UniProtKB/TrEMBL annotation:
It comes from Rhodococcus wratislaviensis NBRC 100605. It is found in: Secreted, Cell wall. The lineage of its organism: Bacteria, Bacillati, Actinomycetota, Actinomycetes, Mycobacteriales. The keyword Magnesium does not apply. The keyword Oxidoreductase applies. Keywords: Cell wall, Oxidoreductase, Secreted. It catalyses: a (3R)-hydroxyacyl-[ACP] + NADP(+) = a 3-oxoacyl-[ACP] + NADPH + H(+). One of its GO terms (molecular function) is 3-oxoacyl-[acyl-carrier-protein] reductase (NADPH) activity. This is 3-oxoacyl-[acyl-carrier-protein] reductase MabA. Belongs to the short-chain dehydrogenases/reductases (SDR) family.
Length: 247
């Protein structure tokens, strides 16, 4: 018996990076997975990779800021697989700039994708899960939401907001059998990090006691823990997966 045998998991921002690794990890542990991402062709290709490996996967083009598209994402899980046991709010963007130079549009877009998107996902998932009397929601925050990062007033605010959302929602739905937890990754070896200047990456890694960035699979492993019954008595928690950075 695998950890998610017979369960259904939804992951947003699942076309690549951490999101795809979480979908793959869940599938490898027995879950049927629904991959949501705003990039239709990319998410279709990602689901195809999982299907080629023998897993059950469905792709949905989804803008997490759009309530109707998010409702459709949830409906797809229920229609395709008959349940919704796990929901991960992972979709995100960056629009970095100093406070002086950041536009209001760039502030709002990051807040909308991360925080509004996570709120919509949490609302939709919790309503479905309460009917079943069980479920696990995982919000992917960031260590930036704990300490704040220069040039990321939008991103840090959004990620801190996701922590508050996680804790408040956890209190509301715990008695219904629904758990809500969050993960705060640090430096992760994804395209987002690799796009930074070499000196910036080096400076970030100097802050990590373990001396390296995380692999996406290492974040996915923690998401699996929170999605599974291994964490059955945990809700409203925030797990830092940072290699010791900012402890």
């Amino acid at each position: 018996m695998t950890l998610l045998e017979g369960r259904v998991a939804v992951v947003t921002g699942a076309a690549q990076g951490i999101g795809f690794e979480m979908a793959r990890k869940f599938a490898s542990e027995g879950a049927s997975v629904v991959l949501g991402d705003m990039h239709a062709e990319n998410v279709k290709a990602a689901a195809g990779k999982l299907e080629a490996d023998g897993f059950q996967a469905v792709a949905v083009a989804c803008d997490v800021t759009d309530p109707d598209q998010m409702q459709n994402l949830g409906k797809t899980a229920l229609d395709a697989f008959g349940a919704m046991d796990v929901w991960v709010n992972n979709a995100g963007i960056t629009r970095d700039a100093t406070l002086r130079k950041m536009s209001l549009a760039d502030f709002r877009s990051v807040i909308d994708v991360h925080l509004q998107g996570a709120w919509l996902g949490t609302q939709i998932a919790s309503i479905a899960m309460r009917e079943a009397g069980k479920g696990s929601i995982v919000n992917i925050s960031s260590i930036s939401g704990k300490v704040g990062m220069v040039g990321q007033t939008n991103y840090s605010a959004a990620k801190a907001g996701m922590v508050g959302l996680t804790k408040a929602a956890a209190k509301e739905v715990a008695h219904l059998g629904v758990r809500v937890n969050a993960i705060q990754p640090g430096v992760v070896n994804t395209d987002m990090i690799r796009a930074l200047r070499a000196d910036i990456i080096e400076a970030k890694l100097k802050e990590v006691p373990m001396g390296r960035g995380a692999e996406p699979e290492e974040i996915a492993n923690v998401a699996l823990f929170l999605a599974s019954d291994l964490s059955s008595y945990m809700t409203g928690t925030v797990l830092e997966v940072t290699g010791g950075r900012h402890i």
